[in-house]
Amino acid sequence: MLATATGLGTLLAGLGSLRPACAGPAPPRPSPISRRRLFPRGALLASALAHCGGPDRFFGFLNALFRSQSSWAQSDDVIAALVRIGRLGGLTTADMEACFKDKALIDRILASRVEGARDFEIASTPTFIINGEKVVGALPYEQFEAIFERLL
């Protein structure tokens, strides 16, 4: 496994301590969402993985990650599940190792999450910011369509 072979397990174990230092107090937790799900390590690594492919493959990786989220996010070995997705997307183990260890990238991802939570008072998922307007919840297509129509 990538984590065992490269020592990423130790690095990733420390990522849990980054959230409180960077994010300040946790936003109110809506029940029954656990603290782990507010910004789990797997979500952080999935975001890093999407960035690994560069700008040309970023949205392709996001699409693959969202489509398979119920599988990798609930996996007993999230890292191995993400590595499989990365390999399918053409990344090498070295590519992924570099991304997962890239402190500047991890810091940017965490800062973006903290900034969004602060600036838009985001406390739950899904939350969308559409042209500066906060839209909360998994709304039906028709409601999103109405929002976009109003903005056009």
Question: What does this protein structure show overall?
Answer:
The protein folds into two domains: 2-121, no CATH class; 123-152, no CATH class. 64% of the residues lie in helices and 5% in strands. It has eleven helices and two strands. It has helices at residues 2-6, 8-15, 18-23, 35-38, 41-52, 58-67, 69-72, 78-88, 93-101, 103-120, 141-151, and strands at residues 127-130, 133-136. A two-stranded antiparallel ribbon has the order 1-2. Helix 5 (41-52) packs parallel to helix 8 and helix 5 packs across helix 9 (93-101). The longest helix has 18 residues, at 103-120. The radius of gyration is 16 Å and the shape is globular. 18% of the residues are buried. The model is unreliable at 1-38 (pLDDT under 50).
Give keywords.
2 domains, single chain, 11 helices, mainly alpha, globular, two-stranded antiparallel sheet, 152 residues
Blueprint of the fold:
Elements: H1 2-6, H2 8-15, H3 18-23, H4 35-38, H5 41-52, H6 58-67, H7 69-72, H8 78-88, H9 93-101, H10 103-120, E1 127-130, E2 133-136, H11 141-151
Antiparallel strand pairs: 1-2
Helix pairs in contact: 5-6, 5-8, 5-9, 5-10
